[in-house]
Design brief:
This protein has helices at 34-44, 58-67, 88-94, 114-121, 179-190, 202-208, 230-246; strands at 2-7, 49-54, 74-79, 103-107, 110-112, 128-133, 144-147, 153-157, 167-175, 215-218, 224-226. It is an alpha/beta fold and 257 residues long. Strand 7 (144-147) and strand 8 form a beta hairpin. The longest helix has 17 residues, at 230-246.
Length: 257
């Protein structure tokens, strides 16, 4: 199992914090940052290779990775030269050659505890698995999902009708067996569309779900956070600090923006 981490974006909603460095390098404490938390969790859960797709602030990310040693994890980068013009569908498409075996796909602004990864990796070996959580209310920015009683994905998108919604994607997917080739082929088809540069890769998953079985893995009750705004970052820092006090992480070098 390997991982692809989509970290090409700047994170403009977090300006001025992301004026020089992308949000994947935002510190969560004095010892660690978003990307470091992701990569160390991957290593602890047995993932041996990770490709970080970079764009804005690529040199800073690459410098941080060169200075950080994560035992058991080989990390490489892939540069998206169109990061300022495209959304994450194009970033995914640029990484398609890395999708040559089972892999995890993780958004660069999603942090999570090890139990989230273990839940996904330890689940049934489905071709495509979308990691989801549940809450009482969903807002316009949530990537909402509709699933059936067996957990099969029926639809995914931000604009789903409220009566259809029974969960949200956390920004982590797993592809096994035929899943990688199905996803690559769908990416190729979608990138030929006129509006492809402004599309999300989850629109591809939505289309796949109409033709093949796309499963979900619920991480209800597990710790994860998506960081899009200053409020998100503040809450992530608070909850991360609370978890770290209970189980202090090793000290690592942190790239400063």
């Amino acid at each position: 199992m390997k991982a692809i981490v989509l970290s090409a974006g700047q994170g403009k909603r977090l300006l001025p914090l992301t004026a020089k460095a992308p949000k994947c390098l935002l510190p969560l404490s004095a010892e660690t940052n978003v990307l470091d938390v992701q990569l160390r969790a991957l290593a602890r859960c047995g993932v041996e290779q990770a490709t970080v797709v970079v764009g804005f602030g690529a040199e800073r990310v690459e410098r941080f990775l060169a200075e950080s040693v994560i035992p058991g994890l080989e990390v490489s980068t892939l540069f998206n030269p169109f990061y300022a013009l495209s959304d994450n569908l194009a970033t995914c498409w640029l990484a398609r050659e890395v999708m040559n075996g089972d892999f995890l796909l993780i958004n660069g602004d999603t942090i999570f505890e090890d139990r989230v990864l273990r839940r996904v990796l330890g689940g049934p070996p489905s071709a495509v698995t979308v990691t989801i959580d549940h809450k009482n209310e969903y807002d316009g920015d949530d990537m909402k999902v509709s699933i059936d009683e067996s957990g099969r994905l029926l639809a995914i998108g931000k604009a789903l009708k409220p009566e259809m919604v029974n969960g949200e994607s956390i920004g982590m997917l797993c592809f096994r067996g035929t899943g990688p080739s199905l996803f690559r082929a769908a990416l190729e088809r979608t990138m030929r569309q006129p509006d492809a540069l402004k599309a999300w890769y989850l629109s591809v998953i939505n289309e796949l779900a109409q033709d093949v079985a796309v499963d979900t893995a619920s991480v209800r009750g597990f710790w994860w956070r998506e960081i899009d705004s200053p409020d998100d970052l503040a809450e992530a820092k608070r909850s991360f600090a609370a978890r770290s006090e209970a189980s202090p992480p090793p000290r690592v070098a942190v790239a400063r923006g």
